[in-house]
Amino acid sequence: MALAWLPARLVGRRAQTATARSLVFTVPGWPGHLPGQHVDVRLTADDGYQAVRSYSLAAPADDDRLELGVQAVSGGEVSPYLADQLPPGERVEVRGPLGNWFVWRPEQTEPVLSVAGGSGVVPLMAMIRAHRSAGSRSLFQLVYSVRGPEDVWYREELEDGGPFLDVRFLHTRRSPHGAARASGRITAADLREPTARLDPVSPVYVCGSTGFVETVGDLLVELFAGRGKEPATIRTEHFG
């Protein structure tokens, strides 16, 4: 059965980076969702023209409130408007939740590895928040690749994640002063220790641009080959 479009009213906006925003909507009748799922957002112009885009949910289910992560793309038709121009109180339509494979459930007890590139951290943030809310004592790892320190989403929350969240920031172009790792793209060396801390059935979540996800997927498969860990535990979500 096709999912219905539901009216969603913008009630909050917070800057994450110079071009990234967290948007909070209220959606009466929202059925709930799992961490890692996403929604379609539909905008309708006065002349009837409609545009639909998909955005990840950045937080676990909270009654009728949804938090989305939106990265404004230069020259984009929808993302710049949502990020900075949609007025508070204005309504759009959402459809979802969508995606049942790229999800984390509170009953999971295995150590987790998540790998994000840029705005790919959004659905992983929903998992991290759900993990914290559930009081889970299993290890949740995040390897987070960004161009520079100014491109990190949810910085305060990630840096104060608690004893069961291990976050590693990788900078591809501009490393902060005193960083132990030189700037550069993600390599097998960046994933070797995090993968060694996993169980054979531990899930691995990878989200980012298509090129990033393909690169990380290949690195993980190579690392798993020597450890008897199944590549089928790798779950990916990509954009672009």
From TrEMBL:
PROSITE patterns hit by this protein: FAD_FR (PS51384)
InterPro entries linked: Cbr1-like_FAD-bd_dom (IPR008333), FAD-bd_FR_type (IPR017927), Flavoprot_Pyr_Nucl_cyt_Rdtase (IPR001709), FNR_nucleotide-bd (IPR039261), MRET (IPR050415), OxRdtase_FAD/NAD-bd (IPR001433), Riboflavin_synthase-like_b-brl (IPR017938)
A GO molecular function held by the record: 2 iron, 2 sulfur cluster binding
Keywords on record: 2Fe-2S, Iron, Iron-sulfur, Metal-binding
Cofactor: FAD
Annotated Pfam families: FAD_binding_6, NAD_binding_1
Domain FAD-binding FR-type as annotated: residue spans: 3-104
Entry-linked PANTHER family: NADH OXIDOREDUCTASE HCR, PROTEIN RFBI
Protein known as: Oxidoreductase
Source organism of the structure: Streptomyces argyrophylli
